[in-house]
């Protein structure tokens, strides 16, 4: 269990608790202030309404009746007619001098509070304050009354507000107690809320620190929800990808070491053999040919790695120009023809008469060579590979390489374009060919799509934008060409 000192230290936990408490405190303050003001207004208005109702009822009786006789009789009649229980009634002159009151006392003083001038002005005056002498909280309501059209008096009601104020004070204390109780509950809940956020983050931070030290086998455990759950899943996925990338890198180093060792061994062996001398021209020619072929193979491997490095660093520059797709595909088939002939594989070219695109011819040829070479590598003897090109719309065209080879499983198809990944490591290579091809196609604002079924073959489609001068042209008829 956490100590109190650690629960309020600087950090997200304290920020969450403080903000939560602040919001609830402000809300409670507004609600309670509004509630207490409304209650106070209700109490005060109720007393005022009760007095004014009594005045209205008594005024009606004065209007339809009469208060005759001497002044003393009139004043006594006013006191009896307008008297209100638990309220002192004073009869004043228009100047505010007290003439008489319902209590029987006739203090020799003049009333100067604001309710008297208001009453003399014709309205019902109201004043709340402290009564002189007793310092008691009172409400005074005054009204001018005319008798027999020539006698006018000011009737002033005094009602004590001490009981009301005491009730209001009790309500205020009760409201404060409720507010404190609510804040206490909110404080406890806010700590729970803060812990539900901070603890998973602390766990994620600790695991992330382990990952930063290279321990990528560690994982964030716990069934977290919402954004925190997404963060945990993302970090776990990142660790899985790093582990996979490291494994692929290790496999690549092992594979490339083997790929480099084989031609280097041949070159070194034939070099030493030729240096020793004593061989006839035919053997010498054979050895030099092997050295040349293995050197070309080494150059190809190094160039592939250099191309991938340039693509990764966005340093590959394209030399764009107008390219005739049919010519480019014919050159591709001629370059791969000898390799296909050894396996008795038939290469077929199907292309429209005229399709021009704006591209880097050498880089695009590199893509098609890689695709056709893969098709030859994984196709059985006496099979066929079809290389076709066609317009898809007024703005795009597609080049398709279709074989009837061993195909690719669904699991491998999702990863075959990843760098260093090899479906069959025994066939050699760096595992960079398709990754480089896809990036080159994307540099041309195109797409590389693959469709394969295990045991039935593979189809790779490269979709590229047409040259501006070709966009919108009518589609010419197909002209199959067999190579």
TrEMBL record:
The keyword Cell membrane applies. Its EC number is 2.7.13.3. Its main location: membrane. It is an enzyme of class 2 (transferase). Keywords: ATP-binding, Cell membrane, Kinase, Membrane, Nucleotide-binding, Phosphoprotein, Transferase, Transmembrane, Transmembrane helix, Two-component regulatory system. It catalyses: ATP + protein L-histidine = ADP + protein N-phospho-L-histidine. It holds the Pfam family HATPase_c. The keyword ATP-binding applies. It comes from the Bacteria. GO terms for molecular function: kinase activity. It is a multi-pass membrane protein. The chain crosses the membrane at residues 20-43, 168-194. Residues 255-468 form the Histidine kinase domain. It is found in: Cell membrane. This is histidine kinase. It comes from Paenibacillus silagei.
């Amino acid at each position: 269990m956490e100590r109190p000192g650690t629960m309020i230290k600087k950090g997200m936990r304290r920020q969450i608790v403080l903000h939560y408490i602040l919001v609830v405190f402000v809300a409670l303050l507004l609600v309670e202030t509004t509630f207490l003001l409304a209650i106070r207004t209700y109490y005060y208005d109720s007393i005022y309404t009760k007095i004014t109702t009594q005045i209205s009822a008594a005024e009606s009786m004065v209007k339809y009746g009469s208060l005759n006789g001497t002044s003393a009789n009139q004043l006594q009649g006013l006191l009896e007619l307008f008297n209100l229980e638990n309220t002192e009634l004073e009869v004043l002159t228009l100047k505010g001098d007290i003439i008489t009151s319902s209590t029987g006392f006739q203090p020799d003083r003049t009333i100067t509070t604001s309710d008297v001038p208001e009453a003399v002005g014709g309205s019902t005056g109201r004043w709340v304050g402290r009564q002189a002498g007793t310092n008691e909280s009172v409400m005074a309501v005054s009204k001018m009354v005319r008798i027999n059209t020539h006698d006018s008096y000011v009737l002033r009601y005094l009602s004590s507000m001490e009981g009301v104020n005491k009730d209001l004070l009790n309500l205020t204390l009760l409201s404060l107690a409720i507010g404190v109780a609510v804040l206490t509950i909110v404080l406890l809940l806010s700590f729970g809320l803060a812990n539900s956020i901070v603890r998973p983050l602390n766990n994620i931070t600790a695991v992330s620190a382990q990952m930063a030290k290279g321990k990528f086998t560690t994982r964030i455990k716990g069934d977290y929800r919402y954004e925190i759950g997404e963060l945990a899943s993302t970090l776990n996925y990142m660790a899985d990808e790093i582990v996979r990338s490291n494994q692929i890198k290790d496999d690549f180093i092992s594979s490339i070491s083997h790929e480099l060792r084989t031609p280097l061994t041949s070159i070194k062996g034939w070099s030493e053999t030729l240096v020793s001398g004593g061989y006839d021209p035919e053997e010498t020619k054979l050895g030099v040919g092997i050295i040349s072929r293995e050197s070309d193979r080494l150059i190809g491997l190094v160039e592939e790695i250099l191309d991938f490095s340039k693509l990764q660093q966005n340093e590959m520059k394209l030399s764009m120009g107008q390219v005739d797709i049919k010519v480019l595909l014919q050159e591709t088939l001629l370059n791969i023809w000898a390799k296909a002939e050894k396996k008795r594989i038939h290469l077929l070219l199907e292309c429209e008469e005229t399709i021009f695109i704006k591209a880097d011819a050498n880089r695009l040829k590199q893509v098609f060579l890689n695709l056709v070479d893969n098709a030859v590598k994984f196709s059985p003897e006496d099979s066929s590979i079809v290389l076709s090109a066609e317009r898809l719309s007024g703005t795009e065209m597609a080049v398709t390489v279709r074989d009837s080879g061993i195909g690719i499983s669904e699991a491998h198809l999702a990863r075959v374009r990843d760098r260093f990944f090899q479906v069959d490591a025994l066939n050699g290579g760096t595992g960079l060919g398709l990754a480089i091809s896809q990036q080159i196609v994307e540099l041309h604002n195109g797409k590389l799509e693959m469709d394969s079924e295990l045991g039935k073959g593979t189809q790779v489609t490269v979709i590229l934008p047409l040259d501006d001068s070709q966009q919108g042209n009518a589609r010419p008829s197909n002209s199959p060409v067999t190579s």
